[in-house]
Protein: Lipoprotein signal peptidase
Organism: Nitrosomonas ureae
Amino acid sequence: MKLHISFGIAFVILVLDLASKYWIESTLEFGQVIPLTSFFNLVLTYNPGAAFSFLSEQSGWQRWFLSGIASSAALLIVYLLNRYKHERLFCLSLSLILGGALGNLYDRITLGHVVDFLDFYIGAYHWPAFNVADSAIFIGAALMIVESFRKDKTEGIQRKIK
């Protein structure tokens, strides 16, 4: 996949993420819940930590620590996108992860927390709220796993042929 296409995908994810966060913050008050279905709400919440609110109770140092990790990951992803541009599914997965990482990085640097608003639940059990960036990261990681199995099968077939 050409580098400009990968960056384009990451940019679309970034724009969708930032626009959705802007919309939700201009629509809801912090903590407000809008039930949409029997398993899904919109809710405005802030996460100063990482996934599943990991490190959210810390004194603030996690903002810069997590920003450093996201920045380093973004640089590594750009390197990998350039190095493995012939691996289309791998590059698609990295592009989704890059766009999501940049969306959450922007929040973390400018706001000190990540804006989350998608709330899925079953009965009284609520999955931790998340956002478009988190969704892109999850889909990118899932595609990367699928690609790894596909690649292993292809390499195994090629070894048997030789």
Summary: Strands lie at 33-35, 40-47, 114-122, 125-126. The mean pLDDT is 89. Residues 3-161 form one domain.
